[in-house]
Amino acid sequence: MKALVLASILAALAASEAVRTCWIHLKNVAFHLMRFLRAQTPGCFEVCFALRSAAICLNGGSSLPALATGEHMFCLCSDGFEGVRCETGEDTHCYEGVGLYYRGSEAESQSGRPCEEWDSNTRENFLSSDVHSGRHNYCRNLFYKRRPWCHVWVNQQLLWEYCRIPRCAFESESTCGRRSRRRQMKIVGGTVATVESHPWVAAIFWRSKSKEKVFRCGGSLISACWVLTAAHCFPDGSNSKRRRFYVILGKNVMNETDPTVEQTFRVEQIILHDGFDNSEGNYDNDIALLKLRARGGRCSEESDSVRTVCLPPPLQSLQDGVGCEIAGYGKERQGLWYKSRLLMEARVNLLADAVCRQTDFYGNLISENMFCAGVPDWSRDACEGDSGGPLVCEVGSRLFLFGVISWGDGCAKENRPGVYTRVTNYNGWIEEKTGLSAIAAGAMFPHK
């Protein structure tokens, strides 16, 4: 009964236009009160308020309808968002990476001109799903430009200009993509490596019912608690039993354990991309995330042998022929029944998509979510057991994870280069699943 009285008071106050503005500014108080009502009288709450879907209120906000008519009156926004439809982020005065996820309310170009409102076609096709915004003229980064921008009128012409928004400072001292030891000298035709030269490499193990420890795949540490790997490493898909998996960071030798450098974690969560598809035998959307189970409130700790690798910005590409590095514990050549005992490394060159899609290569098996890499004499390649491991490329003074080792026809065969998952197609997915907005935006990538 008390809940019904409170609900009536809320609705009556909200129905008054005079207090509507005040109510919006007090949305956090109302939000917590509604949570209390839901906890105390869930049935009544659902009947009285019938919260609307995200079609009305964006970014997780809830619609508060009038008690008498049931019509939407205004939105109660989730923490960190504001606006009539919860369309903007609170206190968002800078952008991360290239600003794909910028949700602030800056509406002025770098020349000082006011931004024009986005047209209905843009709102419908891009803003509603891409940056979760309603009708507005705020700066956004559509079409993957270098930073947020907007349309402005210049001499009676509608043009676009970048906005005057600073880039967020992001741990300039971050060691992502920086190794304590250079390369010293899988992987077919490669050389023995030290984990200090590839400190982001993760070894993923599976424990059988007989308690036997089986190496499953490689992976890459992208943050203290998250490892990026290949979806095909988990043949049971979403039914994979996470309790049977564990991850070792800082591992040099497969059949030896060095507790002074290794860090071992159980897996808290396995997230496979919903679009993973092997119906054509080509592992499309071959990407997955593992969340490490924290110990004492912490996951991995940085050391010479354990560090994170940087992510490049969305859709970032490098020139064909650029040399990059692969590393893993896979077979040293095709036909061997055993995998490498040591961490191996090799250098490969990025191949043009047009080359990899030629009929004497892989043809139409190569989707937009993949790319190929190899060497002219076909002497170096990833092989069975390297799956899920990293292909990293140096940009500036850091290593960036551009590829996940995925598949190939044999190992080091002519016209059969290694195929890699194109990581830069999945920044949004990584951000959605992990909440690592700055990392997923490629905040450490150098911009001219």
From TrEMBL:
It comes from the Eukaryota. Residues 93-168 form the Kringle domain. It catalyses: Preferential cleavage: Arg-|-Xaa, Lys-|-Xaa. SUPFAM superfamilies: Kringle-like, Trypsin-like serine proteases. CDD domains: Tryp_SPc. GO terms for biological process: plasminogen activation; regulation of cell adhesion mediated by integrin. Gene3D superfamilies: Laminin, Plasminogen Kringle 4, Trypsin-like serine proteases. GO terms for molecular function: serine-type endopeptidase activity. This is trypsin. It comes from Cyclopterus lumpus (Lumpsucker).
